[in-house]
User: What shape does this take?
Amino acid sequence: MKITRLAARLAVGAMATAVATAAVAVPAQASGTGSRSLAAVLTKDTSGFDRNSRDFDVLTAAVLAVLEAKPNSPVKVLTDGSVALTAFIPTDGAFRELVRDITHARTLPSEQAAFTAVAGLGIDTVENVLLYHVVPGATIDRKAALKADGADLTTALGSTVEVDVRHCWYGRQVRLIDADTNDRNARVVVFDINKGNKQIAHAVDRVLRPIDLP
Assistant: This one.
């Protein structure tokens, strides 16, 4: 699928889903009181694009690109540590997998190439995808997430993701069911980033998709 066609589908699909979605309850919240923002956590890493697929260089670049183009974007909430929220933040590996999937490539792109492809979707589409990873008004830590099986979380985009807690040989695993019915669901691989603050994050190994892609 061409990037331009995909961008159009994402933009229209995300808008339609947001309009159709009603608010739902969120799980019990953690009592984070600190005011360090997630943006401060992300931008602390100044190494730039590298070969570490477990950090968040592509995500950080995407957030900065949106805020540069649209300073008053709702994504700006990530810079305000006084606002409680939970973000499911895709690793660099997650973005590389997304780009390989949508371009039907055989090999994973570099982080730089992954960001270039994501940026090529257009700022509005990137903004929508980022907002789909943010649950405003709730500080949901690992303990709360593990008790939230079946809960629908309303994202900053307006649409929802479902929490799916699975029992595995090593314990319990949290997955997130997005709007794409035929892709592998994202798994939380690191919990409680920025714990103790009102803004908390959990790293996921796939980018959440706000529409059902072919």
About this structure: The chain has one domain: 3-204.
